TrEMBL record:
Record's keyword terms, sorted: Hydrolase, Metal-binding, Zinc
A molecular function GO annotation: guanine deaminase activity
The organism's taxonomic lineage, starting at the top: Bacteria, Pseudomonadati, Pseudomonadota, Alphaproteobacteria, Rhodobacterales
Domain Amidohydrolase-related as annotated: residue spans: 62-422
Cofactor: binding comment: Binds 1 zinc ion per subunit.
Xref: PANTHER family: GUANINE DEAMINASE
Gene Ontology biological process terms in this record: guanine catabolic process
Pathway: Purine metabolism; guanine degradation; xanthine from guanine: step 1/1
Family from the record: Belongs to the metallo-dependent hydrolases superfamily. ATZ/TRZ family.
Protein name listed in UniProt: Guanine deaminase
Species of origin: Paracoccus siganidrum
Catalytically driven reaction(s): guanine + H2O + H(+) = xanthine + NH4(+)
EC number: 3.5.4.3
Keyword set includes Zinc: yes
Function as written in the Swiss-Prot or TrEMBL entry: Catalyzes the hydrolytic deamination of guanine, producing xanthine and ammonia.
Amino acid sequence: MRHLIRGRVLDFYADPTETEDNHRYLEDGAILVQDGLIVAVDDYAKLAEPGLPETDHRPNLILPGFIDTHIHFPQVQVIASWGAQLLDWLNTYTFPEEARFARQGHAPAMAEAFLDLLTAHGTTTAVAFCSVHPQSAEALFAAAESRNMAMIAGKVMMDRNAPAEVLDTPQQGYDDSKALIAKWHGRGRQRYAVTPRFAITSTPEQMEMAGQLAREHPDCHVQTHLSENLEEIEFTLSLYPQARDYLDIYETYGLLSDRLLLGHSIHLRPREIARMAETGSRAVFCPTSNLFLGSGLFDEGGLRAAGVVSGIATDVGGGTSYSMLQTLNEGYKILQLRDQKLHPLSAFHWATRGNALALGMADRIGTLAPGSDADLVVLDARATPAMALRMERAQTLAEELFILQILGDDRSIAQTYVAGQAMKTAG
Ligand code: GUN
Ligand code: ZN
């Protein structure tokens, strides 16, 4: 079925930090959608046809749906847990909560709630860590498939330094991951990410198995954590005394590539940055989490100058919001502390095409190019009284975007389309 979605249309074809000619903006634009795909984008007058069903979102902005490149599905009931930095936070709140995903019925219920939260916040694709239990990944993939929503997810592999209820073994972690890849990777819009949680919770034997999975499935992403917190780095290096630095552990097991997503990547040494650039390994900036857990200030400009590609992500439940708008807000503030400026055009590029590029998926998501999946977010820059008042003084698109970036949250999400389907019902 064909459907026309009308509004003020914006997407990016280049990175505004690098190129002045970077976006397309249509004041009275429309997106022609058929069978979950974008067929055409143009001025409304050029695409309108008698009898063609239409949804008019004017004066709201329509962009490609937001992409969240690092989030923890089993932490929906961990978000906003008080008073700890990374390692204590994991032991006190996170591991006990993730243990609950072994219970019958828990993962499927949480998966529906998680996907509802994502789309309510305008996020149409997420890269998710699941719990150690294969049924957590199974539940997330099944729920995403039933919505035709593109998920990249993996069960965490972890075999030490956590309670027994959230541990596997090198062989079990390998076998469970392998079975999930066989069932879900490439099925519809689902993709698997091999997920060794981080070096602290995996023995060398398990890291070896993770490397084997990555070699056997070069098409799968690999996701883990790197250099988030100083205590974490010290403990990690004590567990791998041979390693030259933290990244070297992942390198030793063959994990570095342009499919590798390294959550946080804050306290990096020059050698690590150079190796990330050489191998194409991605850094993932998690601003609300880095502030909440007191982890540190990500160096976007430094990594960019060195040639490292970065994604941006919520990292719920270390992160404090599902909203990519709030994530861009806190990202702006972190970069201020580094004397770097996150321009609103760069910010919205990052949450859409930039993250798609970091995932190597910009041919399917992150832009409105014909043939890509019709994942869209509709943004209302006047969603709250404070925003409406501020909008009275806004004169440019960039100003409107910045108001959304700083003041926006789920209240600014007028609609989210996943594969052409509206996720919010009227009312
Ligand atoms: N490092 C290892 N596991 C986690 C996690 O669940 N959250 C964060 N923020 N960092 C981690
Ligand atoms: Zn994380």
